[in-house]
Amino acid sequence: MLDLLRKRRSIRKFHDRPLAEEQVEILEESILRTPSARNLRSWEFIMVDKRDLLQKLSEVRGSSSAFIAGASAAIVVMGNEKTADTWVEDASIAAIIAQMTATSLGLGSCWAHIRNREHKPGITAEEYVKDLLGIPEQLRVVCIIAIGHPAEEKGSLAVEDLPYRKIHRNRF
Ligand SMILES: Cc1cc2nc3c(=O)[nH]c(=O)nc-3n(C[C@H](O)[C@H](O)[C@H](O)COP(=O)(O)O)c2cc1C
């Protein structure tokens, strides 16, 4: 696990090559195995691989989401706020598990944040994505995880650069 965590970096440049069907199946199984509060599984996902939809998704937040256009696939991670008040946590756990699974498959990924972000004045990023993909009212969009074959290399952070001061022993 530590080896995978050392490898994982946000990758925003991708080769123009589809994911193998087996990779998609592994990603799907991994997100469905994630823990959720009271096992209520408040999440829902849309696996997007159509080039025109990836392009439109990439326009949701300007430069902050532009990398989605070049990805092979994107997982739109949603939570049902009527199912559990932990929908943000449940969805976020699934999102990071998708990223770690992508790393384990030799793929690159990056999180594009959607919840509480703006598309343009008067239109939230959530409204834009929900309208584009026909997402029902009760579902909230937390983020989009872009996944693809990495076209950039990023080294792992040096242990010396990790903020160990953030970890407190027994008391703050
Ligand atoms: C909650 C969350 C929201 C993020 N939102 C974005 C985003 O909208 N666009 C983006 O390019 N990266 C986004 N990122 C990626 C972070 O910028 C990245 O994880 C951070 O800079 C550390 O770099 P690393 O992932 O390579 O270690 C997000 C990451 C998290 C965890």
Structure description:
The protein is of the alpha+beta class and 172 residues long. The chain has a single domain (10-153), classed as NADH Oxidase. It contains 5 helices and 7 strands. It has helices at residues 2-7, 21-32, 51-58, 87-104, 125-133; strands at 14-15, 43-48, 73-80, 108-113, 118-120, 123-124, 139-150. The strands form 2 sheets. Strands 1, 2, 3, 4 and 7 form a 5-stranded antiparallel beta sheet that branches. Helix 2 (21-32) packs antiparallel against helix 4 (87-104). It is globular and about 45 Å long. The two termini are 27 Å apart. The model has no long low-confidence stretch (mean pLDDT 98). The structure holds flavin mononucleotide (FMN). Flavin mononucleotide (FMN) is lined by residues 9-10, 64, 110-113.
Summarize this entry quickly:
With 172 residues, the chain is α+β, with helices and mostly antiparallel strands.
CATH H-level superfamily: NADH Oxidase
Cα end-to-end separation:
27 Å
Largest sheet: 5 strands, antiparallel
CATH architecture: 3-Layer(aba) Sandwich
Question: Under the CATH scheme, which class?
Answer: Alpha Beta
Mean pLDDT: 98
Share in helix: 25-40%
- Molecular shape: globular
The percentage of residues in β strands lies in 15-25%
Radius of gyration: 17 Å
Poorly predicted tracts of residues: none
Write the CATH fold name: NADH Oxidase
Task: State the secondary-structure class.
Answer: alpha+beta
Order of helices and strands: HEHEHEHEEEHE
Total number of beta strands: 7
Bound molecules: flavin mononucleotide
Number of domain units? 1
